[in-house]
Amino acid sequence: LLYAPTPFVIGVPASFFAHKAIDIPSDVVVVDLDTNQLLIPDDVNIPDMPEPDCTELKNSLRESLDKLLLNTSKIEPENDETVETDYTMDSDAVDIAVRVAMIRFFNSANVFANFCEHTRTLRLYPRPVVALQTESFLRSRPQFTQFIAELCKTQAVEYFAESSLCPHNETYVRVQAGTDDPKQIGDKGKWFNESLMPIHFTVCYFSNFFLIRGK
C-alpha cells in the first residue's frame, strides 16, 4: 500500500518500518504523532494555503484543542472511570468542532465558496457525473493560489462536486447554515436521546415465527 500510485492515508505504529525493514517511500508525507513532527520529502512541494482562510482554520483548531486540554486538566485524577468518561465527552465535542472547522475552511472565499456555480452536470443516472469548470472557478477566487489550482486537479474535488449536486447529508447542510452546536449536528446518542420518540409495538409469538405489530 505504501507504494500505491494513488493518494492514501494510513496509520502504522512507529515500530512498523524497523520491524519490516521497509524504507519510507520518497513521495510519502509522514505525520509522526509521537514526536509531533511533519516529515515532508525534499522533492515534494506543498503550496501554501490561502490567507486569511488558513489562519482562521488554525485558530479554530487551536481553540477546540485548548478547550479539550482545559477541561481535561480540571478532572480529578482519583477516579479513573470519571476521567475516561469526561475525556470521552469532551473529545466527542472536539471531534465535531474539528469537522465544522474543516467544512468552513473548504467553504471559505478563497477555497470553495460558490463552488456549485462553476459545475456542469454531465449525467445524473446511474451515478452523477459533474464536471468542474476549472478556469472560471479559479478566476472567481478573490485570491488565486497554487494550492487551489492543485486542489482542483484531485479526485476529492470531483467527489465533492457530485455530492454537492444533491446534498443528502443534513448535518453538512446545517453546518453550511452556520450551526455548530453538537446537539444539532452531532452523531452521538447522548446529544439527541432525549428528543427521540418511543416506538411502541406488540410481539406475538407463534410456533415458528414472531409477529410484530406497531401502534
Automatic annotation (TrEMBL):
Q: Which domain of life is it from?
A: Eukaryota
Any one GO CC term of the record: cytosol
What GO MF terms are annotated?
guanyl-nucleotide exchange factor activity
Question: Which biological process terms from the Gene Ontology are attached to this UniProt entry?
Answer: regulation of apoptotic process; regulation of Rab protein signal transduction
Entries under InterPro entries matching the protein = dDENN_dom, DENN_C, MADD, Tripartite_DENN
Q: Which residues form the UDENN domain?
A: 1-171
Q: What is this protein called?
A: UDENN domain-containing protein
